[in-house]
């Protein structure tokens, strides 16, 4: 099994880019695909942890092997959501995903025949399984937010509030390709740090409190991750 991580340079040189798609356009279409997953996922009452988070990672990984030109983001997004529900033991019926997709995004899915739509999702699921060689377990940052924050010298209410802010940032990070470059532990540390900074909280620990969990993690790297999340473009999507 592989570790499913790539270098930043590799993430810039995706199959879609090699086939002629400008990197900025690919990034925009990836964000649109994640929005489809999130909003249709909400329509079938899927949770960020684990289902939507898992589906988002499947989506980003898929396009490290295939092109957006060959596999449109709207169908891959639904295939990822369907498969993630099964893997995370929160299964959603394919017909329910179809109903939610057509209700939430009629301009994208409204003209599709329902039976053909179900068949397309099933077909994408098979391609996903082959692409990922059935290596489907995904580690997400959410649990690490909870674990790391337990050491903060704050009240329970303050910790819960800080984790909730960090949780939102983790959700936002799905609009980036950070999950292809960094382990979930690193993303969790960075986005807890972002929450601490934004909320101006004194957690009562040394500045580099994360050294206990991840050695040699520089503040410059953490700041770079935070910058990418805050500029993820989630509020300017065209779906």
TrEMBL record:
<dbReference type="InterPro" id="IPR043198">
    <property type="entry name" value="Cyclin/Ssn8"/>
</dbReference>
<feature type="domain" description="Cyclin-like">
    <location>
        <begin position="35"/>
        <end position="130"/>
    </location>
</feature>
<comment type="similarity">
    <text>Belongs to the cyclin family.</text>
</comment>
<dbReference type="InterPro" id="IPR006671">
    <property type="entry name" value="Cyclin_N"/>
</dbReference>
<dbReference type="InterPro" id="IPR013763">
    <property type="entry name" value="Cyclin-like_dom"/>
</dbReference>
<dbReference type="Pfam" id="PF00134">
    <property type="entry name" value="Cyclin_N"/>
</dbReference>
<protein>
    <submittedName>
        <fullName>Cyclin-K (inferred by orthology to a human protein)</fullName>
    </submittedName>
</protein>
<keyword id="KW-0195">Cyclin</keyword>
<dbReference type="GO" id="GO:0006357">
    <property type="term" value="P:regulation of transcription by RNA polymerase II"/>
</dbReference>
<dbReference type="InterPro" id="IPR036915">
    <property type="entry name" value="Cyclin-like_sf"/>
</dbReference>
<dbReference type="GO" id="GO:0016538">
    <property type="term" value="F:cyclin-dependent protein serine/threonine kinase regulator activity"/>
</dbReference>
